[in-house]
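Hello,

Our lab assistant flagged a job as stuck in the queue for most of the afternoon. It eventually completed. Since we weren't sure the result was trustworthy after the delay, we are filing this so someone can double-check. Below is the sequence as submitted and the structure that was eventually returned. Let us know if re-running is recommended.
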Amino acid sequence: MEIGDLYIKTDSAPEKDSGLSRAAAARFAEKWKSATDEKQESSTFWHSFFIDFLGITDLQAAGIEFEKRVISSKKGTTNYIDVFWKDTFLVEQKSGGKDLEAAEVQARDYLVSLPPALRPPIVIVSDFARFRIVDVLLNKSFEFRLESLPEQLDRFEAIISHKTKQVTNVQVEADQKAAQLMADLYIQLEKYGYEGHEASVFMVRILFCLFADDTRMWKTDIFHRLVQDTNPLGTDLGPRLSNLFALLDTPKEMRRGPEDPLLADFPYVNGGIFSERLATVNFNGAMRNALMNACMYDWSSINPTIFGALFQDIKSKDERHANGEHYTTEVNIDKTIKPLFIDELHKKLEASWDSDGKLKELQRELGTYQILDPACGCGNFLITTYKRLRQLELEIIIRLKQLDGTTGYTSLFDVAEDLCVKLEQLHGIEYVEWSSQIAKVAIYLTDHQENMKLETVLGVAANRFPLSHSANIVQGNALQIDWESVCPMTEKTIIVGNPPFLGARLQTPEQKSDQAEIWGGIPGSGMTDYVTNWFILASRHIMRSGCRAALVSTNSITQGDQPALLWSVLNQSNVEISFAHKTFAWENDASGKAAVHCVIIGLGRRGLRKSKQLWDYSEASDAPKMSVAKNINAYLVDGADILVSARKTPMVSWVPPLLTGNEPRDGGFLSNISPAEAEKIKAEDPIAAKYLRVLIGSQEVLNGVGNRFCLWLVDAQPSDLKASKELSSRVLAVRENRLKTVGTKSAKAKTADTPTLFSRIAQPKVRFMAVPSVSSEKRKYIPLEIFEPDVIVNNAVFFIESNDLALYSILQSKVFRIWVEAVSSRMKSDYQISASSVYNTFPFPELNAETRASLEALGHELAQERAKFPSTALGDLYDPLLMPPGVLSVHKKIDSTLLRALGLKPTSSDSEILKQEFSLFAEISGRQ
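-- returned structure --
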């Protein structure tokens, strides 16, 4: 059975074919919900897991071992694996509340200590209440709580069937296949002219019917049978669906006319899903086949958040980009909502665990939160937040049962009315109609799934029809709609979301107009990202009502000039960052994953939290490490609230300026001469050859000097220009190129009078350092090089008219790279170094004579080490995988010297270094 087949229905076997049972899983979870003691309960727990849940009665015959002896390959000590199942998985069990990270490290040590032939592909770590499944080959993990074991059947089927090792991806792969099936149907509709509003409404109705068919919202498979009982050519399917949609919007007592037997069992749905009357869709055979394929799929375990991915598969990439759309996994949503308020509720649950009164009080509190996503897309943030609140309420209900000694609800329990967490707590604003339609139906389906979980525990079936509760999803422009008109704004209001990421150059005139209105015309605000508008509006609501917010953004709003601009506005609302995730790689559940680097920023009233959580990522795709910060500033640094604004000059007097090189604007006739062309000029035109010079930009500095030449005619004799055919033809070509510019007043047109010169001359007259304007974020150091003044620099590279080896060392230190990483803008993920925002703002330390001498000596040593590799390009020399040990050794000496100068230890972390740099920045700024 392949991954994509895990959810295909068969007429004869409605249950999963492995024999795993949701009921057995629920019984196991209930039986062991109070287990906490590793020594006393571990063995019995896992025996029960295999026998009661997996249905393996003969453990020895299956090859399952307990306390398997293994000698650590790291320490040489003898250890024991709690549970070992050859070719399947090993288990490291811990007592309740123990660190699963440490348990995973321990389990991985056991794994590598085993002979290769015995190493299973899966590691499971648990503390009874939590399970973490680790796919070792993919280096991915999935974590869930014991009570949700009934929802993990397919994951364990994949483990024990040995049909796939991608256990952690089972749900995602299946969800993507479901999305593709619906995309296929939409494509067929679109092919025959059905698109726009009516197509979007039609599609969400089909989604609802497919889901209802497989989740006992109504009688199983009645929609499937309705579709199946039509002409194979599809000629009667459209009218039948129109009749069905009208019937689903009509109470049974009001239905008129002869009853179609295949329609009789459909309930009255209400809720607005079927209220609009649509034109009948005229199906053909291909369209009917696409719908039948979707009907054949098992939608019972599908995560409703995949409907956003469905939308992404259906729409073109260009359309998505125009709206700045990115779809979010539950993992990334949890990064947003858990530190915002869900973790706080879990702590309250723990504190209330043994008190009937406090538990009921907490249950009532869950119903007081109002959740607003003012860029809700297909509803993923609202869906996931609702699931987390419902899960908390379910835990409270289970605990209340334990405290009063009951095994079920003996009194009548109306799931629709007696639960405190309700759909009315969810509010969304969405610009795109299709997305807003999907959000509405996906939230209904999520609600039904949560009720199914409740039924597993209580034995009480929910009857949601007719639908009487619904989320409030408003279609419109969130930057023009008053958020308070959509969602009540109080201290219990939670604003979350993933607003559009559009940069300034990609915004439409309407979007630019919205931005100007929200920013109030602040100079420079037109160059900020579109997402900043949501931060500003959220901060204003925080100031007025005391609500809380957490938003996802591209990391660009924490880099370059944007932080100072944005926080000049946010500071007026008296808000602060309550928690943050620094730059991480964005992933989503769509088939074409978004390739962006993001941050998550939580906002609250200033002073609300004494300590803040800050997550950092060694690499953008790594797992995060959390630290506790006293304050998180606009650059997501644990440090003072300092805003680094662009400066015209360096912060300290001893540092020379960073200048931009010559600007050609010549059509390449003088400035873009290849080595082959240069050789030809040398051979055929000795006069022109006199004026050939090596030309460098960032690419040449990093990838090899001598790959480009120019004709430098600053001091050219008129007689040479006349006598040289090469020079005269190129100068004429430059003049004609510049005259093509529309408008004689333009800067380029004016330079047509001086066609022998670059349009702007800024050539160093002494030895100089060339500093690339862009450098890869993968490098540990930002490399630069010293050149003689006969090497011509273009405007793609900066230069410093100095060969000060102390400065040379500082600019190639970890200390400077950390500053660049924090405050520079990015080109994709690469650092963009600028004079005003990066170099001029860097708090260069004042150097005493001893430190300066050390840095000068180390700068000379570094140049000598690099000279040992004359055939290696500078960029390759600084590739982390290729960097010669001798070069790296000198850099580490430079780092140690500078850190001592800053009053830090050589072992200081990047965060500690940056915190000290911001402190020094504030100190220097205060003196000026």
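-- support follow-up --
The delay was a queue issue, not a problem with the job. The result is valid. DSSP finds 33 helices and 25 strands in the chain. The CA atoms of residues 41 and 550 lie 40 Å apart.
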